[in-house]
Amino acid sequence: MHDHEHMTSTGQASGRGEHARMKRCIGLSVLVLAGVASTALASDTAQRERGRYIAHDVAMCVQCHTPRDETGALIEDREFMGAPFPVAPPSFIREGAWCVATPRIAGLPGFTHDEAVRFFMNGARLGRHQPKWPMPPFHLSRADAEALVAYLRALPEHPPPP
């Protein structure tokens, strides 16, 4: 019998040392997985923050896809829920080509992840459908498109009850 084992009441070696090693190994595995998970969570958070920056401060999606109150201020608890478009079309835009109401983009309904990324990378849906004016045909980098999609997907798809 080895010094890390002891005899059980049946006269067999119990392998206490092996059991302790297994517990240490499991504990270490849990710590490693927790570290990986927290790193992934931090990465996801950073990506969504980048997407928020793009949606609010660069592409400014919030300005058209959020309804406004009677003073013209954005209604914050309805961000990205779609809204009547506040500007009439210029005379050179043919009827029907101008956006009268912007769609809800919170949660990106109707888009798969890949479709949404491609849309923000090439400015057209499925490579051919251009959104109505004045939606610009964005040509974001893949990283920026992924960040914007991550942010919009993380938003609630329905506004809070009044």
How would you describe the overall organization of this protein?
The structure is a single chain. The chain has 162 residues and is an all-alpha fold. It has one domain (16-154). 44% of the residues lie in helices and 2% in strands. The protein is built from 4 helices and 2 strands, in the order ααββαα. The protein has a two-stranded antiparallel ribbon. The chain is elongated.
SSE order and pairing:
Elements: H1 16-58, H2 61-65, E1 83-84, E2 101-102, H3 113-122, H4 142-154
Antiparallel strand pairs: 1-2
Helix pairs in contact: 1-4, 3-4
* Global outline: elongated
- Rounded to an integer in angstroms, the radius of gyration calculated over CA atoms is 27 Å
Structural class: mainly alpha
Topology order in helix (H) and strand (E) letters: HHEEHH
Summarize the structure.
The protein has 162 residues and is mainly α. The protein has helices spanning 16-58, 61-65, 113-122, 142-154; strands at 83-84, 101-102.
Can you give keywords for this protein?
single chain, 162 residues, mainly alpha, two-stranded antiparallel sheet, 44% helix, elongated
